Amino acid sequence: MTDTAAGVERRRGRDETEEERADRMWGELIQEVRVAQTGVQILFGFLLTVVFTPRYADLADVDKAIYIVTVVLGACATGALIGPVSLHRLVSGRRVKPQAVTWASRMTFIGLILLLATMTSALLLVLRVATHDDFVPYLVTAVVLWYLLFWFGVPLWTRRRYTSR
Description:
By secondary structure, this protein is mostly helical. It is built from four helices and no strands.
């Protein structure tokens, strides 16, 4: 396919089979998952240690509830982001790579949503304990909007702006 409307001969797309495309997309997805997995696993590891600190007993009930929600969200995010590895291992060699890429992509997206929720909850807890100020919800909201802008807004804008129809 070429773009002749602007007077520019430019090739669009790739000349690859469905299997080649699935292989390429799988490799790209795994690289993305590695980045997200590392972050969520470090965050989850730190979260698991909080309950064993002396300060945990002094937390208000609301903060303990936020902590529990944060740990559960972190566990779910970890599971969703490790899911593509398990999926690949269990279906490898079964000639379903295109379908595996689709499902792994969905798991990764869910994992990113759960990671966003985990980070939001963790930030809320830390700022509540550190400041006890009324501005904490506004600060957390601003950070969440920042994440939404760069994790979803810019990518969706880029997809819409630069994807040919």
